[in-house]
Amino acid sequence: MTRVLVTGGAGFIGSHVVDALVATGDEVRVLDLLHPEAHRDKPDYLNSAAKYQWGDVADPRVTDMALEGVDAVCHQAAMVGLGVDFGDAPAYVSHNDLGTAVLLQALQRHRFEWRIVLASSRVVYVEGRYRCADHGIVRPGPREPARLAVGQWDPICPRCACALTAEAVPEDAPVDPQSVYAATKLHQEHLCAAFGREHGVPVASIRYHNVYGPRMPRDTPYAGVASIFRSALEARRPPQVFEDGRQRRDFVHVRDVAEANVLALHAPEPVVGAVNIASGQTHSVLEMAETVADALGPGAPRPKVVGRWRPGDVRHVFAATELARERLGFSARVGFPEGMTEFARAPLRGREEP
């Protein structure tokens, strides 16, 4: 039996990680801030077999108490989503980067030497991987507003301006975080990797792609696209699908993500470095919205493609999953239709929660 600390273990993904670890037979301790942007109150889905401590991972005294007697750490605590504007930067840096630094400092004091699993994100890649017929793998720059304004959504080759083919993004693809949230997630990876190298501790940074499922929050500036669409449908409003709706993503169910965390903690050989956690299947944003609407029945509003765009949005990002299979033995189990149908009918958390 492993004694595991799950930071952020009362949240959307963290609570499913707690459930999966308890089911495996681990002794689970949770440290969660219950931040008002995430929770109105203690959630009703908390696992009675886990022990909960309420406090901020950025508080050294709180973190020291939470780490007492712990064998492994599953670090889920973070402020998520793209936020409202740059005014959110201090909050993201405080919760994500400072919180991680304080946790690692406490691990050093406790002479920690087993495993850390860090929840990272596909946002560190920005755009996906693209191939030009003439120039091979290329890195297009940010999409130009002039092209977006006339509905030319797809990136073009930076060398010949020809059309590109999107491919799955491997873990060794260049990273280029272009939002505050993305920058903090990559910095978390760097901080944890530095700690791991200095102290001989294996650190797996598992990069979640578009996670969805039960316990997701309602529509807030900190919610993902699946939650935003689901909230609109519940309010009997047609989901607003930006661009032409054909932008592709990998939607992975939260129970599969939780299982990936368990595998990373218990793999026979420690996993070090970045690993994509995704379903291995791609679906368009419009297809996702239509699938959720279909699951709610014929009276549900239909998604509306509005043709708008937002600065910083990316076109196609989906994951190469071979490394997760080889290193973790991970393959997603929840199919897209069944997962989205369950998600469409599951209750959402309150509006105050991200």
Describe the fold and architecture.
The structure is a single chain. The chain is globular, with a radius of gyration of 20 Å. The model has no long low-confidence stretch (mean pLDDT 93). By secondary structure, it is an alpha/beta fold. A seven-stranded parallel sheet has the order 3-2-1-4-5-9-14, sandwiched between helices. Strands 7-6-8 form a three-stranded antiparallel sheet, with no helix packed on it. It has a two-stranded parallel ribbon with strand order 10-13. It contains ten helices and 16 strands. Strand 4 (72-75), helix 3 and strand 5 (115-121) form a beta-alpha-beta unit. It has helices at residues 12-24, 60-67, 89-109, 145-149, 180-199, 225-234, 254-266, 285-295, 322-328, 336-345; strands at 3-7, 27-32, 51-54, 72-75, 115-121, 129-132, 136-138, 165-167, 203-208, 210-212, 240-241, 248-249, 251-253, 273-277, 283-284, 304-305. Helix 2 crosses helix 3, helix 6 (225-234) packs parallel to helix 8 (285-295) and helix 8 (285-295) crosses helix 10 (336-345).
Low-pLDDT residue spans: none
Bin the strand percentage: 15-25%
Integer-rounded radius of gyration? 20 Å
Q: What's the order of the H and E elements?
A: EHEEHEHEEEHEHEEHEEEHEEHEHH
Q: What is the total tally of β strands?
A: 16
Helix/strand-derived category reads: alpha/beta
> What is the average of the pLDDT values?
93
Bulk shape: globular
Main β sheet profile: 7 strands, parallel
Number of helices: 10
Adjacency order of strands in the biggest sheet: 3-2-1-4-5-9-14
**What is the helix fraction of residues, given as a range?**
25-40%
Distance between the termini: 33 Å
